[in-house]
Specification:
By secondary structure, this protein is mostly beta strands. The chain has one helix and six strands. It has one domain (4-111): OB fold (Dihydrolipoamide Acetyltransferase, E2P), CATH 2.40.50.140. It starts with a strand and ends in a 21-residue tail after the last strand.
């Protein structure tokens, strides 16, 4: 199973685009920082979100927001200017705003998906 959980701060505002197929697509980055002071290390993760969730992310997530992203790793190899390159992204299954250092009043019972038993 290819599953990753990324918890960190959003580095840039999510950008909504429409793919040629008509599908909504959002891309943004998340910084995952561990350690303190001189031992601090930050890893940047490129996140991509599709469909209705993409629109929800644009409405709910901004630069600096602390988020929890659950998804799968996608690795794509391509060639640019004769050089072989690799792009790694996290294709999000779910994105949530973290409540570790703050609260939110934006979640309501009506937003639960119809097939969700809760």
């Amino acid at each position: 199973m290819n599953t990753i959980t990324v918890i960190g701060n959003v580095g840039r505002d999510p950008e909504l685009r429409i793919a040629p197929s008509g599908m909504q697509v959002v891309k943004f980055s998340v910084a995952d920082t561990i350690g303190k002071d001189d031992d601090k290390k930050t890893t940047w993760h490129d996140i991509v979100v599709f469909g209705d969730q993409a629109e929800n992310v644009v409405e709910s997530v901004k630069k600096g927001s602390r988020v929890i992203v659950i998804g799968r790793i996608s690795k794509d190899t391509y060639e640019k200017d004769g050089e072989k390159r690799t792009k790694v992204e996290v294709v999000a299954q779910d994105v949530a705003v973290s409540l570790r250092w703050g609260t939110t009043a934006s979640v309501s019972r009506e937003q639960v998906a119809p097939e969700d038993p809760f």
